[in-house]
Each structure stands twice: as structure tokens, then as C-alpha cells.
Design a protein that fits this description.
With 209 residues, this protein is an alpha+beta fold. It has seven helices and 13 strands. The strands form three sheets. A six-stranded mixed β-sheet has the order 6-7-8-9-12-13. It has a five-stranded mixed β-sheet with strand order 1-2-3-4-5, covered by helices on one side. The radius of gyration is 16 Å and the shape is globular.
Amino acid sequence: MKYRVLTVTPLSQNCSLVWCPQTQEGAVIDPGGESERIEAAARQMGVRLTRILLTHAHIDHVGAAGALASATGAPIWGPGREDEFLVAVLAQQARLFGVTLEEPFVPDRWLTNGELVTIGTVQLAVLHCPGHTPGHVAYHCAAAATVFTGDLLFQGSIGRTDLPGGDHQALLDSIRRQLWPLGDRTTFVAGHGPAGLLGDERRTNPFLR
């Protein structure tokens, strides 16, 4: 697996372009905005987008999903159905947070814990990680020892739980039950800020000690 992280939207959200180097088939995880820039990055890398994957349904992570789906024909998968209520109010979220919803959408498929998403020869395991939102998921590539965590975990911090559907204890449980078993040497790509190692967060993150 190869990946490239683009920072998009005024909220500095990380959008990850993930692809299989054997087939150049790719996916974009959490296209929060700037669909044309995301498309250009895919073309530059010679990647053909066949999936749009969402970790959760906050506007800064999904604002360009509908436009990308229309432009590329790629279906939108995720997050969990528990976030359906957030998809229904994306226009209101956009107004509240000042982030553009480029095109309204409804996911083509809701994802559940344990499913596998195949992109060429790359497999991403879906991990249901409620807490930041009820339907939040993470995407784990075991072969590359990398997990895309959305707004679950950050370097030195954790996701906020004061928005509708947030649950602080559920978020802590998700990190401990879903992320820690992946191993200390697994790289996590967060929804905001720099990537890091799970082991470093397990040892030093003040919210998790």
C-alpha cells in the first residue's frame, strides 16, 4: 500500500489518498473539501479512484465526497449507519462550521466492524470505533502496519466528544479495544495533525495513561 496525505478545508483536515502500487487502483479516505485538488493529486500519482471511504459524517471529513463520486463514478462507503443522522444534516453542519458541502450525497454502503475493503491487492479492515460519533470507523492495513483513525486519536490528544452523538467513555474504549491490539509499531494517520505510532500514544498520551 502507498498513501499520500492532503490537508484540506479551513479546519485543516487530513484527506488520505491510498492506492495499490501493483494496479494503481485507489481510494480517498475522508475527502473533506477541495475535490478538484484531490482529483489532481490522484492524476499526478496515476491513481484511478474506485472507492470513497468515510470515517465519520462530520462536514470537514465529507464535504467533497459527493462531488468526487459524481466526477469519478467511485461509490461512497462508510461510515457506520449510526452516523446516518449526521449525513441528514450536512447542509446545516456546513453553515455552522463554515465548510463547503460541494454536493449532497448519501453513502452507497454503510460499513460494519470486521468488513474488508479491497483496493487492488490492498485490504483495509473496517474497525467500528464509536465515541467521536456513533458510527465512526477506522481503516487498518495490516500489511502496511498503518491505520487511518479519523478523529479518534491524535498525537498527544483524542477526539472531542461534545458534539451530537459523542461519548467520551466509548471513545476511550474504542482506542483501547480496537487500536492498541494493532501493535505499538503500527502507524496511525489522524484526521488532523501529524501521524504517529500507536505505541508512543499508549505510553505518553495524557488522555490515555
